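Researcher: Re-running this chain for the archive, since the previous output was lost when a drive failed. Same request as before.
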Amino acid sequence: MNVRPLSLFDHLVSFLSFFVITVNLLFWLPVLVLAAAARVLFPFKIIERYTFSLVSHVYKMAVNVDKWWFTHVLKLSFSIDDGEGILEQLKSSDNPVIICNHRSWFDIFLLQTLFSSGGPLLRFLVKEELLKVPVLGWVCYVMNFPRLKRRGDAASRRNDMNAARSASLELGKTPGALLIFPEGTRFSESKRLARNSPFQYLLKPKPGGFSAIHSLLASDVMMIDVSIGYREQEANCWRCMSGAVSKIEVKISSSSAGEVGDAVEWLDRQWEKKDAWLASISPRMPTEKSDPV
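Model: Regenerated structure tokens:
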């Protein structure tokens, strides 16, 4: 599949998209900061409850602005296979766990658009380095997203495992969906080969964090598996923000935590299904080029 090179106009649209999203975040950021400050200064349950409700509404309004831009301005088309009606169920389910393959930074914007505009607030495990990114990093800090070091040494692995466990325990205290990218990083063909992945379109998932989280979940917690497939070979975030990626495929399925059984085996089975589905919709999806954003 030949990929159309981006024109000067496309690059300008991408720049404008990022500008709009940044302004949108900055507009709501003072409310988030004030809510965080109120929690620190007045550590009472009633204050925590009201500030979380405020933050949740602000989060959803910001997501809806982004959603409007993606669908009405960029004209992005999302083809969603949700035969179980999971998106509708989420309106009355506060604490699901969502796992997803990771191809581009745009995955996060897409998942927020799908889940958070009408469902629960989406929280995710973030790399520590992301906190240094202006605006986005501030939002992650104010909303207390669990932070991972991802450095490979023993101390960092212990920190990451503790962050995963903490995120799992938090599910029972405050409403919100917990998003996990089990691959740990964005997919590229070079990473797939370097890691000797048994999958054609995916990196082998790292089960440690997922297993730690699953071990602490109540049996009735909803586990949602999302597969994202971009119809273009070179579907990086910059290209998506230009509107050049015409169609994005999404497949959603669910299980309860009690149905998962062995977390490692279950994750491998899900990845086998995901890889087969990605092969069926886009046989030439892998690319050597990394996401520039």
